[in-house]
Each structure stands twice: as C-alpha cells, then as structure tokens.
Amino acid sequence: xxxSETQGTRQCVxxxxxxxxxxxxxxxxxxxxxxxxxxxxCRKQSNLYECHDCGxxxx
Length: 59
Prior knowledge:
With 59 residues, this protein is of the alpha+beta class.
C-alpha cells in the first residue's frame, strides 16, 4: 500500500496539491501497482511523476 493511501490523503505526486474533488487521475504504478494520483494540471502539462513506493518515473 502506498504512503498516501495509508495516510488517507490524495495528493498529486507531481506537485503535491490535494486532489480530492478535482478532475484528477488515479492509476496503478506500471512497475509495482501502487496507487498514484495526479491533478488535471500536471496531467495536461505532462509533468514527470515518481512512485513513492518503488521510484518508477513517468511523464
């Protein structure tokens, strides 16, 4: 389970803002399967993200 899930918060892994109630994306890390949240702004700008559990990086 990812760090953000254990804390009960949903933060964008790129910029760190709270994504609750936003048009955000939630998906599984391609490498380890941990849940990743990204805000709509970071998705639109294709900002890089890093999985907190395994360190996988993606656009």
